Every structure is written in C-alpha cells, then in structure tokens.
Queue: 4 jobs
Job 1
Amino acid sequence: MRALTYRLERIHQLTGARPTHPAHRYMLQTAVIGARPLDWPATSL
C-alpha cells in the first residue's frame, strides 16, 4: 500500500494534479492515452 500512496503523491508533485480527484484523474488518463501513440517517453518529442 505504501508504494501506491507514494506513487499517487509523486504524481501530484510532478503534475500538480490529484489522482484521487475525478476531473484530475480524467485529465491524467487522457494524457497517458495521448502519449502512447507517440511512443513517449521512449521517443523524444
């Protein structure tokens, strides 16, 4: 459970978004879905 809590807090630190907030979670999920076709982060943008 600590690993999950740490990761959620780290996401908040890096993005300013709260993964537990529905609107923020939707924004983060959309960003991940959009990054996949770009092969990010393996490929530099």
Note: The chain has one domain: 2-37.
Job 2
Amino acid sequence: MSSPQLPGGWMSISTGFTKLCKGLAVVLIGGHIVVHILPFTVSYLALIPAKTIPFVWNLISAGYVEQSVYGVVISTIGLLFIGKLLEPIWGSREFLKFIFVVNFLTSACVFITAISLYYITTQELYLYLPISGFQGVLAGFLVGIKQLIPDQELFLLKIKAKWLPSLALLVSVFLSFFVKESTSYLPTVIFGTCIGWIYLRYWQKKPETKLRGDPSDEFAFSTFFPEILRPAIDPVATIFERMLCGKRPESDENGYTLGGASLSGSDSVEASRRRERGARALEERLAATGKTEETQTDASENV
C-alpha cells in the first residue's frame, strides 16, 4: 500500500525542531568542539578497539563524537530534519531508545569486526584506528523513513524514500574507494542500517496493538535490493530470520494466530495502517505550519 504524498515536499518543513533533537544536536556540536580543542580526548571518547577494554564507555560515547567539521554538520542537519519527522510519530521515549540501541549495537558490531579483521590480517591498523560519529544512527533513521513513508518522493529528485537506505550504502561504498577518510565510516553505515532494520522489524513496541515489529512484506529485507534480485535474496533472508527469531506462529483460516499470538498477515495490515498514520501526522504538521506562516504574513501586512 502506497503512502499518501505529503504536500510541499520534505523541505517545506524547515522550522520547529523538537527539543530532544536540539539537545542531541548540542551534544554532537559540543563533542566536536571538545575533541578539536583537546585532541587527546579522542583516545577516551572514540572507539579504538585496542582500548575498548577497559574503556567500555567508548561503545556509547563514540556515536556522539564527530571528529571532522563535515561530519558534525551533516550529522546535526540530519538529526534535526529527520528527527522532526520521526519523533512525533514514534514518541520522544521510543525515539531516544532507538538512538541508544542502534548506536550501542552498531559500535559493538564495529568493535567485533575490527578485532576479527586484526586476527585475519594481523594489521594493527584495525586495532588503533579511532572510529566515531553519528552516521550509524543516521543510517538507522533512513530505515525509519523507509518504513513510514516509503513512496514519498525526495525534494528535487525522483527517488522514493524507500530507497534512501540503499542509496546511502551505495554512496558510502563508492566513496570508500576514493576518499580514504570515508573508509572508517563505511562499517558504521552498514551496521547502522542493519541494526535499524532489525530493531524496527522485530523489536519496536507498538503500544496501540501491544505487538512488536513490522513483519509486512513491504518492509522485508529484500526490499533494500532491486526487484530483480529479490527472488534470490528472500530464501536466504528467511533462513536467517528463522535462526534469529524462530518460526512464526501458524494462522487459522480467518487470519489470526493459533494460541493467541500475533499473526504475520494481521501485523502486515497494522503496518500499512501505521504508515498511513505516519503520513497523516506529517500532513497535519505541514498544514499547521502553513497556517502559522499565513497568520504571520497577514499580521505583518496589517502592521
């Protein structure tokens, strides 16, 4: 089911950032200033696999420390604009929980990958390269947009929102061949996308239905790939899904699970309704923003 088109496009939402996003933006900017003024703090705040034990807090702090100006600018802008779309729909508590889980598990996966690469290649670069940044969470945000408004087209581009995570991964892989600094961001983006999808697919609570996740076909793992590749990806994804989550409960002829558990088909309907509610909430926000601007314009003309 396609989601409604939002009037005015994404860029019409340009003001009214949430307090939580503003606070997190201050943290990102403050972290960058700290490591810029005091470079030695990178060793304590960034993820350096050889020092993660005993500095285990790096698994959390690394996500909020941007070492470059470009990084802090992109992360701050992405947080403010994407957060404004997601937080009103998810709620502040769920939004913050998503950030924490994706950030922590992304750092943990990067740590395990770096240690594994060291033992495979014996190159100490993997142990002492400082890795940090908000890119993993931003990649997870893009998955959230894919879930809520998959058919919304981007401003000035004829690309639907459902392709944002895949596009971000392709750009990151492409840049890693030509920009040396981007190589350290690539694992973070990859794991951020995967963890974001896993969280939204299996773990996110839905208070209105007391269910978890989004098992709809429109949000399956294969939807990250072109349609021609999906028949080959679906069987592999199914194997991993059963390994991680077990076999889904069987349903009866009416579409409900035997034993009272939630049914995949009924959850798919709920997921579609959820996307409609998300798009509707954004439409209401855009309409309220438009009315506010009209009121301000009329007031200025009267003066």
Note: Confidence is low (pLDDT under 50) at residues 1-14, 249-266.
Job 3
Amino acid sequence: MRAFDGQFSDNKPIRRNMDEKRRLLAELEQTLAGMKPHTSPSLRESIKGRIMELRAEIGGAKR
C-alpha cells in the first residue's frame, strides 16, 4: 500500500512550533523522571539525548 502525500509514513520530520516543543520537552522530562530503575540504559540515553536536542532548539530560538 502506498502512502499518500502528507501522510505520517512519508518519512519526513514532524514540524513543531515552539509551544509544541516546550510541551514535548516537559513530557519527556516527566517520562524520564518516572522511569523505573530496571529500564534499559539505551532507552534512558535516547530520551536524555532528545531532551538535550529540544533544549538546544528552544534555547537557540530565544537568542
């Protein structure tokens, strides 16, 4: 089955405005804080990396 134009499976990044990025950052920080100790280190590092990327994007936009 082929994707139609604009479908999420088009392998394009999702464009978010600053409010959505701030909301996503808060959600990821809550997720990281709520993780159990037995959560895989790779998942934990992946979320930390995305948090750092979002902080850089938000911080870069303020300048």
Note: DSSP finds two helices and no strands in the chain.
Job 4
Amino acid sequence: MGAPYELAWYGCDLRTGAIVEDLPVLKPTGALGRKLGATTTLQFDLALAGASIDWEAATAPGRSMVVAVDQATDIPLWAGAVLPRDGGSSTTVQIGAATLECYLDARYPGTQSLVGMDQAAVVSALVTPALSSGPPIVIDAVSTGVTMDYLTDDGDDRTILSCLQEVMSLEGGPEWTIDVAWNSGHSGFVFPLRVRSAVGTQATSPEAVFDYPGSVAEYTLSESYEQGKGATRVLARGEGEGSSRLTSSPRTATALIANGWALWEYRFTPATGVTDPDQLAKHAAKTGDLMAQGAQVWTVQGVASESPRLGRDWTLGDTIRLSVDHSPRHPAGAELVARCWAWELEPSANRVRPILVEEG
C-alpha cells in the first residue's frame, strides 16, 4: 500500500513563479484536475486563523497562483492562477483558481501568417506573445513532422487559447498542455507548455495498471450516441448564411453504414473566423472519426493510496491499463488500454480518477 496523498500548497508570484508563502491552511473544496488542451478550475477555503503572514500577497487575484505538490514524491501536480477572492466577516476567505490555460484566453496572437510550418512551430508562434510580461511559461515543442498553414488576424479578436484549441481539433492536429515543474533553484515553479503529436507516453503494455477488484473502488463506462456525441455523417460549416456559407465535404462512416448502422447527421461550426476550406475539411474529418461509434468514456475511481501514483507512474496523456476481473457490467471481465485525457484527485476522499477515452 502506498502513502496517502498529502499536498503542500504554495502561494506564488504569477509573473516569476517564485514562492511567496506556504499555505498550509488552504483547503480545496473539490477535486483538483487537469485536462488536455483545456482549463480546469478549483475553489478553496482559506482559514484566517493560522494563515501565513503574507497570505494576502500569496493569493492576490491576477497577481498570484497556487501550486500543489505531492509531499511523498515532491512532484508538482497542479497550478492555478488566482482569479476571485471573497472575504469579510467570515473566518474563512474563499478563493478560486484556474489552470494556466486560462491565461492564454486573456492574451492574443496578433496577425500572423504561418505557412508551410511544422505544427509544433505553429503552436509555438501562436503562444510566443504570451511569453512577454506573462507567467514563466517555457515552450517545449517537439517537431511533429507534419506541416500546416494557419492565419490569424488581430481584428478577429481570437485569443491564443481559442487558436490552440482549434489547431488541436483538426484532423491529425497536435496536442498540447501546460504542465508545472520546479524551477532550477527549487524556489518556485515553471510551466512547460508541451506540444506533441500525442502528449504523454503511449504504450501497448503500460506499467500503470488499475485493477477491479483491487485498487479500483468502482468504475463507470459511459456510452452515448446523443446529439453532439455520435454521428455517422459530419459536416463542418463556416460562418455566414445560405448558399454562400463555407461548407466542408461530408465525413461519412461508410463502412459502418454498409454494415447496417443508420445515418445520423451532425453539423457544426468549429471556430469563428475559419475561411480555409482545408481547415474545415480537417475539422469534419477528426470530429467524424471521433463520433462514428459514439462516445465511450471510462471513469475510474481509484483508491489513491493503493493505485499507481499520479505524477510518478502516470500522468496526462499516458496510456493506462484497466483490468476488470468481473463486475455486474462485465461479468466475464474486461481489459482496456486507453489514454488518460483528464484526471481528478481528491486527497480527502483518498480517490484518484483517471478519465480514459477509447479512441477508434
């Protein structure tokens, strides 16, 4: 049996990442979590009795961030910029924080013409304006070997986050996430922005294994063919109206339909300002491939102290094995290797929850 999760919380300067104050009385009111290419949020209570001397500076909205470190491994697991803070006659102060993807939603890429560039270089160029007067984000972009064109116009008012999410949603698009790590002096933190064809480590036989019964208290397989989750024909549409509206060619799951599936149609507008037919086609292709057989998401409720250790044994984007000996849903058992697209950690409940998504 491993050690329970005990988190050390630090209040840090947003611009430099330097630790301002330990925050031993800062308590999250829910589970902390991460998700590929997206912001997650967390709420806290800070008890004023016993609060550190500089707690106000360490939690100042817009100027600070809070960072969680696993005390058993000394690995930083979560970081969030402090946004709201409320307090008055109560003995506690309420604080809200969001992972640093939120910062990219408050910065703009400007006008850029990125033609014939590697996907990783495109992401790097879009993020570069946020490196000026921003948090200590360090770009860690590995060439994907795939080139693309991407144009931005400052007049469209699209944020860096919206651009990066659009690039990631293209067929064959690169993945990205913002991690947190100790700085070289172990006196604060830096934020590597990872850009890969696929973030994390993908293995057919991963070392991180969650077993039921065993380290898994319970699990759920959620399957859905609801609107927006399942379709056998997908069409991406640009902005505008009527016959002048830019439209992709349809992405049709012809093999499924030939094998007896019904035709389910789905039309969507992937992002504002898309004027490139090739980009629309890539949006339709990726969305169509993901939706063809519907959504299949496994949520694993692991006993945190008995499961593979988050940050050490597995992390965001890694493949994880779920081994079910038997259960009411799977009486003959089930074996699954799938990628962790998101995770949640709730130390007070001794629970860790990797969210596993089956991909095609």
Note: Residues 25 and 51 are 6 Å apart (CA to CA).
